[in-house]
Protein 1
Amino acid sequence: MKTIYFLLAALLLSSTVYAQTYTKQGTVTYKTLYNGNEREDMPLLHLQYANEVAALWRDAPEVEELIPGYAHETTYLDYSALNMYQVAVFDDGDKYHAAKSFTDLPVPELVADKTREILGYTCKLAKTVINSNTIELWYTTEAGIQGSPQPRVGHVPGLVLSVVRNGNYEQLATDIKKQRKKLKKSLMTDNLGQEVSANALGDIKRSKMIISTRVFDDEQICWGKEKMVVDEPQLDSVYHFAGGTLIVKNVKLPKTPDHYSVFAEIKQYSNGDAYDRTGSVFVIPTGRTTDFWDGLKNGINTLPIYYDVDSLAYQGVVLTDEYEPLVELVRFFTTFGINHFNDRVKIKDIAWEDHSIYKQDVSDLKTYLEGEVLIGAFIGNYDGGGHKITLDIKAYPGSFDWKEESGVQQYRQPLFNTCNVMEMGGQRYGTMFKNDSLTVDFTVPEGVTELKLRYITTGHGGWGGGDEFNPKQNEIFIDGERVYTFTPWRTDCAAYRKYNPVSGNFWNGISSSDLSRSGWCPGTATNPEYVELKDLKPGKHRLKVAIPLGAPAGNSFSAWSISGILIGEYE
């Protein structure tokens, strides 16, 4: 017994001397599991602890080339000061950090009488609920070091070896290496970069990864702006046509790998016009003998003419051997006077918004959104103040690998577009459906598969009997066979009341902006319909769109704005 006592005393004495020169250190590696299976797409997470500071970081993805804007992140946990520092370093040299005190973190509730063994350590359980997610923290006090793979969910007194979310998503420790040696330098660098809030850091990280191009910047679309005539559009110049109600810009867009999703984001508000107006953002195809720019430059009647059964002429609306119609990205509708008229009307319990946002996934049209592109925007109005519009084209990564490609070659063929964006320049409304149908001939090349039609349709005629307020069935035929039928109708327009300050209010308490409409509401963008055409064989075909157009009333008439582009893949 005396021998054992003296041995223990010697060990304690040597430990005291050891602690004066050395510090507790350790490295923990975590893997990510979902439903018990390891997530191969999630790189390993590492936590290093030394001198009461833990550094938490994840392995960089094993890819050929990282996407631009990737954030190299380290989270430092200072257990002596009870502070957390989230640090992000970017390849362009920018460095930011967000600081948070442990006292501002959620407080997990310790669960008595529940233990779990992980890597030979007995772990206790603590629980918390964040945003309706149940979080379980399994931690041990036996390791002699501290840290957590998810420190933001709450601080517990020990080393967290497992974090389980909702019973199916887990970050689990797979290896612990403990050391006692001299610490050459602090884990936490003195230069943490510019301090920002946690929310701001999240915004910075996202904005760095998103490849965004500003096309129009608070550009005015109104009646009265002088038309600019040039032979060839200059890069980054904005041109105004149709009395100023249509703008076009030649912009250079970056090419991105196939895994990027592309969105068109529009911000719009009234600069004097009080009414709900049709709007469209589009690309002008330039691959054939004639294009829509020629019609802008030389007059709308110089474009190929489509005649209906009544011999009415429609300019530039269908595909021909020499011409491709406009490729519509987004069909949107302005509200009744948002922003400009916000002080005009006060209604109880309604706070008017100051702008409308329309954002749509246009990844299907990505082939038109690379390199030099002619992008246009139209809002029909005869007001001198009109509207202001901002347009961004944003590309979002779907992988960390810049070099990753799907290898699929895209086929895109615009077929028709009756949205008369040159309305104020004499382009006829889409009324060919009165006694006829719209028809277009096209050819499917050999090797094209997975065909579908991207179809946008909205009905117009703004009185009680007009097609705006009366459901009308749309039918699509190919080679005489009906392949699709549906009735475009929006019943949720009342949800956008706070965007329509000068919408008329009726005696019964309903606002005119509340009324259901043919495929649109004031303040919304219209979703495309996708018509599957997988059985369509290579060769020549004829497509027909039939809509029962309503009869006119006095000077009022109905019309339909429809656009369609054929989408497929080459084998």
Protein 2
Amino acid sequence: MKTHNILILGAGILAMATGLWSCQADMDTPELVVPQATIKANTTILELKEAYQGRTVLLGDKDADGTHYIIHGRVVSSDATGNIYKSLVIQDETAALTFSINQGSMYTEYRLGQDVVVDMTGLYLGYYRGLQQVGSPGDPYDGEPQLGFMAYNYWQQHAQKNGMPVPDTELVSNDPATWPSETPYCIVERIPISQGNLPLMQSQLVELRDVHFVGGGELTYAPYQETVSRYLKNEAGDSIAVRMSGYSNFYNQTLPKGTGSVRGILGYYGDSWQLTIRGLDDVMIDDLGSKDKPFTIAQAQDPSSQHRTGWVSGYIVGSVKAGVNNVTSNSDVIFGADAEMDNTILIADAADCTDWSKCLLVELPQGSMLRQYANLADNPEVYKKRINVLGEISTAMAMTALTDCPGTMTDFELEGLEVKPEKEFSQIYSGLDPAATSCDWTFENVSLGQGISGVWSWREFNGNHYLYANSFTGGSARASKAYAVSPVIDLTDMTEAKVSFSHAAKYQNNIKEMCALAVREEGSDTWEQFAIPTWPTADSWTFTSSGDINISKYAGKKVQIGFKYESTDSAADAWEVNSVSVMAR
């Protein structure tokens, strides 16, 4: 009996539900409400940032008639993963601006690509530790006013959404003339990033190319519930801090190993750039392009590989004809060993390839070992030989090409090539003798923290002399940057060169990320950094050999060696260096 009643009840519910579904099917679907702002921008973000650069102000009226400052921009930040904390970044065609807002999970209301119009009159525009932003007055730092979080309801009173989100991001160059007005964009950059125009670049969404994580494959993104800096480096040793939160939903994953691109919001702390990724989708790093895993030609031709630096492997199948500036068909190239010019080769995934569109053009630098041994005009026997070569995947002669190849013997491998050096390495320069009471190096200060009169000096302890760098004073670290610079070293008759030295560092906070060996040509102000293979053991002042550092790309030139010291307001290491040797042949 009870079973029967239940069946009847079930049938009744089914009938009611069927009726409801029938009614709902007849109803119209509610129209999508598209937000429309009632105010319109009259000022660009860059105009506003530049007008109040270096100041903290409560913005008043734009004009005497009571007109307000109004800007607009598309959202390029997201706190969905928890790595960005209580801030929102919008971007127009001129610049980007950070809003510090006391609210979490803003991504649910302000999605990527959402256009937002903001009435800036009545809001505070100023700084937090060097980053220009909008917020609410907070505690001063070093006597300077600082902005913290504004109330969420106050933000809502000033901000209006306009239209639907446009989430697709356009990749652009760092030339402001290329920045679009109707879509969000991401600026392709390389480190080091210039500090020449802070209002222009602070808070922008950028994609850093040809970088790798220090500690990739070993460190996690962050310890649990700790905010830390991880570091990205390029091959030259230039670095940038990446802020990682131990509250993010990916904190315990391992940093990827390899080289690639990383996107994020370009922040600023003290006097240094730092990057904050929005999530793991911003990390595009793998070991493709390494010497052990070179690009194939097909991979190099993929648009996503443009401007990546790495190794490419293929077979030498031809060269560009004499007088040709743009390759657009097979008639512009010569397949085979009968080359007319020695400055290019074409390489392909197959040794018998005769289709120019499946080839990669390789530029052979004048005077390089790469041109000497790999060009077909002088070496017809290399036809159909496999070559692995290092360079930047770019465009030349209107086709995909490998450019900026260093071209030294360590930067390419050619099938069957065995080159025995005509002479052995000999010492070209020896400096910073530990027994010397003085040194002939000079010191160049780029920036000095408060209370710092200099970073580098020549010191002695127990009869051992060394270069010494430190920017810790008055009980605090001071953000500084300076170079110790050698005399001019003549490598004009050399084809290969390497540097080694001894160094010690007891307190190692960020020394491996921020300090480096650097080289520049005589008369130049531009330094190129080189990674140091071996760092000394921490917690002691024991001197350790750096290992050999290949600077063969500067062979044939007069150069200066430099040691770059850099620190932040939160970490300043002490570095000791002596016994510098330059070997060449």
